[in-house]
Amino acid sequence: MLSPPTAALLVLEEGRHRRGSPGLRRVNLALFAAGLTTFMSLYSTQALLPTLSGAFRVSPTTASLLVSLATGTLALAVIPVSSLSERFGRTRVMLVSSAVAAPLGLLMPLCPSFATLAAVRALQGIALAGVPAVAMAYLADEVHPEALGGAMGRYIAGNTVGGLAGRLLPGLVTDLAGWRWALGATAFVSLLLTVVFWALLPRSRFFSPSTRGGGLLRHLADPGMRRLYVVGLVLMSTFVTVYNYLGYRLIAAPFGLPESLAALVFVMYLAGTFSSPAAGSLADRIGRRPVLLGACLLTGAGLLLTLPDSLPAVAAGLMVMTCGFFAAHTVASGWVGGRASTGRAQASGLYLFAYYLGGSAGGSAGGFAYEHGHWAGTVAYGLVLLVVALVAAVGISAGERRSRRQEAERAA
After folding, report:
1. Burial of 258 (0-12, 13-18, 19+ CB in 10 A)
2. pLDDT digits (tens, 9 = 90+) for 332-346
3. Are 38 and 100 in contact (CB under 8 A)?
């Protein structure tokens, strides 16, 4: 006979989207589109940094603010936005966020100065916050635990394709028509994807509004959660640093690539498209810690491979690093949802705050490593951060089992 907590847990999970169900396929498609439009918009200026440095006569570190401001304001917005979703609902917040962000993207090609463009990027980061702040909590609410890792991986795969498109499309259009047309084309495609997201997203069925306070403090009091937040922060710092400044390296000697070819390095994002769902499914089977540790080591190995002045070595290293990074991000973000028995959006919001803070502050700090230590200094900077990620990951306990038992006991 089942104990009351076990029976309550089975009732709690009954009816959630299971692996292979039509409902889960629709959730996956909707959030894949959401990831596409969000990350196309968020990183649409990254491949254009060398061009924008020249157009506005600013240094690489200053130009990188067009990435850092968007990720930084997003980081600041995810926590309040996630709290709003605990009260007003997951789907409502995601839909409003995407509807506000799309028109802001259309303003970017019209900006007359660097300062104006930077201001629009800052506003765009705030508007974009609603989807990443809530999507992971939405999945944890609506998807059966047996399929959660795979669903999280598919959502992050959409992020990787969006990140790729947001870097590749502007880089290719710039050579044909200039950076303003490049940003306009990206914004238009993002608008179309927003419409697809609105059409496909299923309504929340297991969300219950909450006005309880203290959720953020409860998550911060959990040592495992704090370690996961550190993992997200340092991983994103490393990743954004590499992609921010690799373009400068590739257009300079000894490579001397044209900017349109240098932008093709972002095709390596496809490695993350495949590694994200694979890592999520593997973590469902063998556990999160070993997959997370292996992914961090893979990221470091890829970073080391980029050191030689050899284009094949740089390409291979970038592919390996990207594969490891997105695998680690998938596992860490899914682990946050697994540990949180209440306030899942706030738990995810804290993770994303750390994650995008790493992309903003850590990515800009990486500019100093590149300017003063060239590529070897950039790699050293990334390796130090990855050691921090490994140390944090080793100490994470399997606290989500305790959290799920507590959730079941409350439902009993």
Report:
1. exposed
2. 988 887 787 777 778
3. no
Exposed/middle/buried for 119, CB within 10 Å: 0-12, 13-18, 19+?
Answer: middle
Give the CA angle between residues 240, 243, 244 to the nearest 5°.
75
| 17 backbone dihedrals φ, ψ, rounded to 5° | -65, 125
In 3-state terms, what secondary structure has residue 205? coil
User: For 233-275, what is each residue's pLDDT tens digit?
Assistant: 999 999 989 988 898 899 888 998 887 777 777 788 788 888 9
Structural domains in the chain (count)? 1
b/e for 13-30, b at 16 or more Cβ within 10 A?
beebbeeeeeebeebbbb
Read off the pLDDT of residues 56-70 as tens digits, 9 standing for 90 and up.
Answer: 988 887 888 898 888
Nearest to 403 by CA among 190, 228, 174, 198: 228
Owner of token pair 């839909």: 95
For 88, 172, 248, 256, 367, the CA distances from 253, given in Å and listed in that order, are: 54, 21, 10, 5, 18
Which residue type, as a one-letter code, is found at position 293? L
The first and second tokens of residue 333, run together, are 């973000």
Quickly tell me which residue has 């640093």 as its tokens.
241
Give how far Cα 45 sits from Cα of 55, 109, 174, 191, 334, Å: 13, 11, 11, 17, 28
CATH number of the domain encompassing residue 279: 1.20.1250.20
Of 48-57, 95-104, 205-214, least confident by mean pLDDT is: 205-214
Give 340: exposed, middle or buried? Use CB within 10 Å, 0-12, 13-18, 19+: buried
> Half-sphere exposure (CA, 13 Å, Cβ side) for 85?
35
Domain membership of residue 406 as a residue range: 16-204+214-411
Is 8 domain-assigned?
no
pLDDT of residue 367: 84
pLDDT score of 11 more than 70 = no
How far apart, in whole angstroms, are the C-alpha atoms of residue 8 and residue 189? 45
Does residue 3 fall inside a structural domain? no
Predicted local confidence at residue 84, as pLDDT: 84
DSSP assignment letter at 290: H
Q: Is residue 9 part of a domain?
A: no
- The answer, as to whether pTM is greater than 0.85, is no
Q: Is residue 6 part of a domain?
A: no
Question: Distance (Å, rounded) from C-alpha 195 to C-alpha 62?
Answer: 34
DSSP string, 104-140: HHHHGGG--SHHHHHHHHHHHHHHHTHHHHHHHHHHH
Q: Tell which wins on pLDDT, 228 or 211.
A: 228
